[in-house]
Each structure stands twice: as structure tokens, then as C-alpha cells.
Amino acid sequence: MSIPWLTILGIGEDGVEGLSPAAATLLAGAEAVFGAPRQIALAAPLIRGERHPWPSPMLEGLPALLARRGRPTVVLASGDPFCFGLGGTLARHLPAGEFLTLPAPSAFSLACSRLGWALQDCATLSFCGRPVEPLLPLLQPGARILALSADAATPAMVAALLNRHGFGPTRMHLLEALGGPRERLRVAEARGYALSADPLNMLALEVVPGPGARILPLTAGLDEGLFEHDGQITKREVRAVTLAALAPRQGELLWDVGCGSGSVAIEWMLRHPANRAIGLEPKPERAARAARNAVSLGVPGLKLVQAAAPQGLAGLPAPDAIFLGGGASRPGVLEAAWSALRPGGRLVANAVTVETEMVLLSAFGRWGGELTRLGVERLDRVGGLHGYRPAMTVTQYAVAKPEAGPGGTLSPQRGGPGGAAPLLATAGLGLRPGASGPDLVALIRRAEELSGHHVTRLVAPAFREGAEALSFAAAELALPVVFADREALLAVQGRCPSRSEASLRATGIASVAEGCALALGGRLVLARIDGSGVSCALSTESET
What we know:
The chain has helices spanning 21-28, 37-43, 62-66, 87-91, 107-115, 154-164, 236-246, 263-270, 284-296, 333-340, 354-367, 437-451, 468-477, 486-491, 501-507, 512-519, and strands at residues 6-11, 32-35, 50-53, 73-78, 99-102, 123-126, 144-148, 171-176, 184-189, 201-206, 253-257, 276-280, 303-305, 321-324, 346-351, 370-374, 377-382, 385-390, 394-400, 423-431, 453-461, 481-484, 523-530, 534-540. By secondary structure, it is an alpha/beta fold. The strands form five sheets. The protein has a seven-stranded mixed β-sheet with strand order 13-12-11-14-15-19-16, with helices on both faces. A five-stranded parallel β-sheet has the order 3-2-4-1-5, with helices on one face. A hairpin with a 2-residue loop joins strand 17 (377-382) and strand 18. Helix 12 (437-451) crosses helix 13.
């Protein structure tokens, strides 16, 4: 087994005094030490090698770190590097055998030891580089929450958020510079918070709702009163059934087409913090309203695209589920949604008009699935008496797209070997600045010939957006281009069979083309092939 060349070293506010003998030896023997300026200052008495403060953003410093592969190097991190730290980022670039991690106690562990709380009973989150609104869904009576602050202003921002939503009696423990000589613990209620915080601080909250506090239920089907809307909103009873049919799972992506107030997308994201959603809404006032609702209900990460389907769907990341709350009767919308949906994904469409219902009946005939009619009646006044007033009946169509099997069938409309239609693939692309468009087109066509697959979309790294070669290839092949951001590429590097040291030095990513092919999911069917300044890899839509 090879000896790890990189040590990821957790260091606390007690500096080198808190390091184990092994950690101190590795730090002193490192040829180079990377870290934030504050961490380098804490470790300074033992540093003998070169000092490399991280640039901002930190990711820009990774190529210099990775260029040192094979030489003794230390990366400093606060506390536990794999608890809201940079450990996860580094692990996406390096196999586990290349690094050794020596953690210090995390801020969460130190806080619990000071307060006498059980860490497993606490919700944890970080406000570092993130908004404070994701705190809102966690505000349940009696909950204990640990949160890392971004800076000295964070505690006051949290107190203001708690007060706005009726949680003024919540006890806020302010823990500053934990583990070091400047450590300090203070407590105040949110409604009277007036403490001045050290920039290095975290919060421990004991949630106490005040009268009329807005507590978000843990079930689907939030009351319409929690949303800002113009009357065009999926009613809570229908919304609960819709969420059940969409069947959200951890980390999945939803397209909410015609999202209106954003209620379905927001509730999808509330099911798990890792869930993502894109709302497509052509009316600017409704898109703005959906954005406000997302912030107000604790999911500010909802992405809004101001466009109409089907044109607005082009270039979006492939979804795991799609909800059509409106516009399903427009020509091409249902077909475009079905085509974009991942194998195994769920499509749910609601209709209140006969015309849309006819479209859904036709889809049922082609793709199968389930058709359900939903009727809701609510008690209302009838003069001086009361009666049940029915809402418009909703016809709901729900269908799961078949998984790709060994024969290559991806859906009822897509064949495989021996079938009428070719196997379909995504082309992941790598290209140098100034690459030739014709060379890129030729390489993609060569990839099709080698694999026996037909390319239906192109995926390129976001740092090459605007490259003339990409525009040329997209126009020449009449294909959409999707851009994969750096985090998406890093997340799949462990599944890429090819590595380029030149690419790693230039971009910080060792496998660009294969990373792009895998960034939207699926499995490789053609590993990277190279042309003049361009590279291409192909993936299918299925992991199987």
C-alpha cells in the first residue's frame, strides 16, 4: 500500500498545543502547508516548509496543491475537516489512499460538551457562505440546533429571523472561539438579543415558539395561507396527493413546469435538505412571487427560470421528477418533459380542463401510468347557513418512466439493439481554448460510430461557456448544450477511468470529458477519446 503524501490536519483554537505527537511530526516534516491565514498562524511554530494561504475562492488554489502529488504536504482545516469542512472537497479530487486525515474535535462536539447536549439529538447546519433561511424548517418546538456562523454579524441576523417568525423566546447560546484562550459562552433570548459577537462564533439554539409562531408542519400539503399567491395555487389537499405521486427521494431534482406560486417545488425541497428544484414560470410577477415564497419557507435554493415550456426546458439538467401544473395541453410540452425525464423518474400532471384531460388520456394510452380524479369540497357559508362548496375537479396523471434494461430500452419510445430506434447517449466534452469547431464535430461523430449510440445532447464544463467551438458544434449537430459546473464535475471524478495530469494542472480537474458525460447521471459507454485540442466521452441515461 502506498504512503499518503497529503495530510489533512484538523487544528483548533489551541493551536499546536492541541496536536497529537503524530500530527505535530507530520506538520513539521511537510515540505508545504496549505490553509487559511488564521490556521497557518495557529500552526506557525511547527511549520518548516513553504506556506500557501488559500486564495479566494479556495478552489482556485487546488491546482497548486494537486501539482505537489507525491511530496509531503499538509492541508490545515478547522476542527474536523469532514464536518462542514474542506475534507469533502479534497476527497472529490483524490482517492482515499493518497491522504491521511487527523481531525481535531469539531465545533459541534465542543459546543455539546460545554452545554451537556447529545450531539445526535441536535440538528446541524452552517451559515458559512449560505443564507440563514434554511433554519426555518428546523424550527420545531423543543428542537436543539447547532449552527456555524459566517462572521460576527450572523447571530444578529439569526435573532432577527427568529423574531420575524414568532420564535422570540428561543434561547440563543453564543459560543465564541471554542477551544482556545479567548473562549466565551453567553446566552440570550432572540427577542432581546443585543450581544456583540467575536467573528469566530457558533450558535446553539433551544427553540421556543411564541404565541402565533409560524411552525412549518412536517407533512406535505401546507396551508395556502403560508404562500403569497394570486389565487393560482395548487390547493393543499391536491398538493399533498401530488407530492405523494412525485415520491421525492433524497438529493433528487424536480422540474415544476408552470410553477406559479412555487408551492409544489417548495414542498418538494422541504422533504429533504439535499432536494433541488427548478421552477419554470413565464410570467415575471409570478416568478418573483415564487422566489419570495421560497425564501420565506426556508428553501432559498429554488431556481426560477422565466420561460415557457417546451422552449424553456432546453439545456436544463435532467430531472428525476417533473410536475406539470399548467401548460400540459400546449403542443410538445408533455413530449419534451417525457424525453428529458431520467429513466425511473416520475411525471405527474394535473388538469382541470377537458382539453388538457384529453392530452393526458392520450399520454396514458402511450406510456401507461395512472389516472386519478380528485374532488375537494370545503365548508362555506350559504347565506346564514353552511354548505360544502366544491372546487374544480382535478384529473391527475402519474407515470414512471421505465428503467433501461440490458437490451438497451430506455422508454416505450426508445429502442435498443435490434429495435427501430438507436441507443441514445450524452456526449461529455473537453476542449482547450481556441479549439476548432469542425474538429469537435468530427470527434463527436467518431464517438457515435465507435459506440453505436446516437448523441442527443452535449455537456461541456461551465468554464468553457462561450467557446466558439461549442456554439459551432451545437449548431452543426442541432443539439442542446448543457454546462456542468465545477462542483458537479468534481463529484464524479472517482468514476472516471481516465486522468490527464495536464488537465489537472490547467483546470484542477483530471477528467473533464468523462466528468461532463457523467455529471448528469448515467454510466459511461465510451471512455475518453481525443482529437486535436478536443476530447469526448459518452454516457447513457441509466446507471445499469
